[in-house]
């Protein structure tokens, strides 16, 4: 007899399940990337729902199947509404639905924004650990002082415990005090310094993070940024295509990142090929292969749905049978039994 139930898992439960597990999360993300690179997954292109041309609001569907030792399939449905901050709400909200591999029925629905933030941060930290030459880096430059930026610092400190300083910039100066207070509470003794411009933050360290809500490039030059720098371009649309083409480029997946008007997509349109991009797994397995010129290295992760599946599966492991709610008879009886 197959289950007719669906489990519901709240954000609070997910937060508890993943709290303090940065190393385990990074390991899950690494395994997911390796399975993806070896063809043990199905990853259709993400689907974007957009609104008025001038609006930064969007909703994205990310379906995925992750194979290998643990099979998990489902979809993340995530909205990004930057104006939510003024409403006292998070920019992103999401749900993740997980399907039973045998019957195809959805077996769990869970809050998705925490998983989304942590998988993004973990993938950035994983990339930085393989792309950055100085494992004793003491500082990081951060542009965009929201949840993704904060989570990325959290995961970077797992890979680079020596980080004790953040040069932070945001177009909304009022966000800095809140961000700085949070950092000092989480990591007593850390130094948080306001950077007047984005380039000031990026040039202050050899490890940088772009985590904005920009729709179009707004950084036209990396003057002052070290050739040894690694920039984690998480928001994907901050850098002018000329910068992309002048730097070393690593992406989580070359095909996916050349879509949706990312900075890499704009660069691709200029040259008509992807020769300037190296995949993350290739960069991990062949160290140095991505350094094609004396210039900064830019990591542009499009955000693969297999990563969400990997962490959703981890949540199910951690929670076990302790779902917040269970709808016992969600599905109707088999049609033949109703005849």
Provide a descriptive summary of the structure in words:
The structure is a single chain. This protein is of the alpha/beta class and 339 residues long. It has eleven helices and 16 strands. It has helices at 11-18, 22-37, 113-131, 147-159, 174-186, 198-203, 241-246, 254-257, 263-271, 280-285, 305-319, and strands at 6-9, 41-42, 47-50, 58-66, 72-80, 92-99, 106-111, 139-143, 165-169, 191-194, 207-210, 230-233, 248-251, 277-279, 297-300, 325-327. Strands 1, 2, 3, 4, 5, 6, 7 and 16 form an eight-stranded mixed β-sheet that branches. Strands 10-9-8-11-12-15-13-14 form an eight-stranded parallel β-sheet. Helix 3 packs across helix 4 (147-159). The model has no long low-confidence stretch (mean pLDDT 95).
CATH architecture of the largest domain: 3-Layer(aba) Sandwich
Distance from N terminus to C terminus (CA atoms, Å) equals 19 Å
Largest sheet geometry: 8 strands, mixed
CATH topology of the largest domain: Rossmann fold
Strand content is 15-25%
Structural class: alpha/beta
Count the beta strands: 16
Mean pLDDT: 95
Spans of at least 5 consecutive residues whose pLDDT stays below 50 are none
Radius of gyration: 20 Å
Helix content: 25-40%
Can you identify the CATH class of the largest domain? Alpha Beta
What is the count of DSSP helices, taking H or I runs of 4+ residues? 11
Q: Which descriptor suits the 3D outline?
A: globular
Order of helices and strands: EHHEEEEEEHEHEHEHEEHEHHEHEHE
Number of domains: 2
CATH superfamily of the largest domain: NAD(P)-binding Rossmann-like Domain
